[in-house]
Amino acid sequence: MSRKLALLGTGLIGAPAARRLAARGFDVTVWNRTAAAATPLGNAGIGVAETPAGAVAGAEVVLLTLLDETAVAEVVERLLPALAPSTLVIDFATTSVAGAERFEAEVLAAGSRAAVAPFFGSVPEVERGGLYAVYGGAEEDEAELRGLLGQLCSGLHHAGSPGAAAALKLALNVLVFPMVQLIGESLALARAQGVDPERVLEILAEGTGVRAPIYSGRGRLMLDGDFAPRATVQLAAKDLALIAAAAAEHGLELPLAERTRERFDAAAAAGHAHEDMAAVAKLLGEPLRA
Predict the structure, then answer these.
(1) Are 117 and 184 in the same domain?
(2) How far is CA 103 from the centre of its chain?
(3) Are the C-beta atoms of 15 and 37 separated by less than 8 Å?
(4) Torsions phi, psi for 85 (to 5 deg)
(5) What is residue 47's three-state secondary structure?
(6) Which domain holds residue 245?
C-alpha cells in the first residue's frame, strides 16, 4: 500500500516534487493558496484539496514547500487541527532559527512530529531527485526522514534539531549568493575587455581551483539570457535578509553578504523579483553576450 502524503505549496519546487513523489508510488494530495497553480497536478491524476486541513486529513507525512516562515506559520495554523496523531510534518523552507523552533514547538504541541529540511538546488535538481538538504528533527525519526528525503535529495546532512539545521543553512547560504553576483561581474569584465565570456566558463570547467556548479550554472544562464525562474531573485533577497538579521542578532558584521543583499534588493526593485537569481547580472548593464 502506498503512503498517503500531503504537499502544501505547488510553486517552483512543490509542483515537480509532487510529480516525482507520485511517480515513485506515494498517494499525493496537494494544496496551493492560488488554486489555479495546482490544476495541472490535478489534471495529471494527483489529488488536489481546497484547504490545508483537507490536504492533510489522513496523511502520514506532510511536506511544506512554501516561500518563507510567514507562509509556513499561516498554513501550519490552518492544518494543525486536522493532523492525525504522530504525523510527520517536514518544512522545506529556509527560515530563521526562531522560525524553525516555533514551527517545531507548534507541531509537537499538536501531538505530531516535526522536522525541517532547508535545501540547496532548484527546479532541475528536484526533478531528478538531486537536491541537497540540511535537515533537523528528532533522533528517533532520522531513519524515516532519510528515507523520505531521499526521494527528492541525492545528498543529506543531519544537523541535529530543527533550529540547528536552520542556523547551519543560513551560514552556508552566505557562500551562495555572492557567487551568483561574482560570476556576473567576471563575465562582464571579460566582455568589457574584449574577451569572449564563454572563455571564462570554459576555463572554470577545466579547473583553476574555483570551479563550482554555481559559477557554471548561473554563468550559463547569464550568457544565454535565460532568466526563467528556477530559484528566484525574490528567494535570494528573502534569504539574504534572514542572514542579515541573524548577523545583527549576534553583533556580527558581514560586509560582503550585506553588499550582496543590496544588489539582490536592487534587482527585485528593478522588476526582476520573479526571475531566476541570475537576473541580478542585469544590473551590470549590457547583456553579457555580445
Answers:
(1) no
(2) 17
(3) yes
(4) -55, 140
(5) strand
(6) 167-284
Same-domain status, 147 and 10: yes
Do the beta carbons of residue 264 and residue 236 sit within 8 Å? yes
Q: Where a domain ends, among 160, 175, 198? A: 160
Q: Do residues 111 and 45 share a domain?
A: yes
At 79, list the grid cell: 492544518
Nearest to 68 by CA among 95, 28, 101: 95
* Within-domain flag for 290: no
What pLDDT, in 10s, does the model give residues 160-203?
Answer: 999 999 999 999 999 999 999 999 999 999 999 999 999 999 99
Grid cell 509537537 is found at 108
Distance CA 3, CA 61 (A): 8
Assign residue 232 the CATH number of its domain.
1.10.1040.10
pLDDT in tens, 82-103: 999 999 999 999 999 999 999 9
- Local structure of 171: helix, strand or coil: helix
Establish if 289 belongs to a structural domain. Answer: no
